[in-house]
Amino acid sequence: MLGLAVTAAGGVTTAWLGRGREQLVRVPAAGADEPPPADLTTITGLATAVTQQQRQIDRMEARDGALRRRVRSLEAALTAAGVPVPEPDPDDRRLIEQ
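Predicted structure:
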């Protein structure tokens, strides 16, 4: 809840500081599944932006979960076949262990 309040406050501050400037409109590339940018000068626009970001986070977390399940099944298959499971790249180890 605190994160949502901080995000909303940040959005309001950004909108307030950016008022009076010409709004740039991003045109998504052909086939891009990106919604148009929300109007951050209104509560409704802020709510829309937060909702869109939360949906994107949910999709990313679902994808991450699916990839983790896939890795576990591949590791189990390697172990069952008697093949040692390789260690992760040292640069990736800290990301994996989080």
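Summary: The radius of gyration is 21 Å.
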